[in-house]
Amino acid sequence: MKRKGKMKVVALVAAAGFLLLGQGMAHAADTFKIGAAFALTGPAAVIGDPSAKIAEMLLEEINAAGGVNGKKIEMITYDTESDPTKAVTVIKRLIDKDQVLAIIGPTTTGSAMASLKFVQDSEVPMVACVGGAPVVVPVKKWVFKTPQSDTLAVERLYDYFVEKGIKRVAILTSAGGFGDSGRRGLTEQAGPLAIQIVADERYGDRDTDMSAQLTTIKGKDAQAVVVWGIGPAPAIITKNARQLDLGIPIFMSHGVADPKFIELAEEAAEGVMMPASRFIVADKLDDSDSRKAFLMDVKKRYEEKYGPVSTHTGYAYDALRIIERALTVAGADRAKIRDAIENTKGYVGINGTFNMSPEDHNGLTKDSLVMVGVKDGGWVIVP
Q: What is the pTM of this model?
């Protein structure tokens, strides 16, 4: 992706086969213009970069096939730099200056939360690529999201804990929007399942050593530690834990199922487990799984262009597909696009089968997640 200046703006018209900087064909009457706000730099780039890449890949395919109702989709992409304040700035630009019909993104829960009021007031549909449940719970009329909520991820993780008899848990969560939401889910869901939180530690996304928090955890009678965050920090925590010989299993949020985690944590990653979408382990699925062929096809095409997929890779794919489906029935009408997104039913995507409604702007269940782990430097399904 070509980037320019602090704003790093990209306008992509896939059918033409080239990138246009700035607004380019922003006012062309023969295109459906949408916006994208991705963290292409900063700690959340591990999510934003694959999101941008798969959105470009899918957009090329859609436009090469004739677009939507004979019109191409034009996508204008800005870098939020993993900064909630910057995210608000670029989303305002997409809505006020670029006049987009809908927005994909942003990448982080904090950025999405910071943008909610403006998006709601502007009445522009936004399909976020974030894990935090508060972005859509309670429901916000104009806001949707495609990753599984942390609420669902905690449910899936705790199902595994109950099955394995893990009752005493230490948690180490990031001091950001995603970490706050995850911590809330981990603590609130623990009680009804008789899971005891024996240590509750926090860290900053840009921290470079979490040995102090882990030392505190080591002094507790925990059967497992759950780390909730994204970016490089979980890999650092994993290394710190191995150096301290923590001696208990390490579990991560669904936001860590990324080859970058294994690359950064190196051999310390071995044995780490987490809930994740099936995309990351598509090649390990049983041949009887009806979604395997679809997931493997997308995985193959992405990896031929960009390299290994992560759990984040599918977020923008599903967001763009959902918007494409909405454009097909709604045309260039923001309100009708919103209504069509809310009525998404039976869309089989990367992250699962989406069934949205006025009461549910995510549309997934915990069954869209499987437990995965690192074995021999790669991802496997955890039995």
A: 0.85
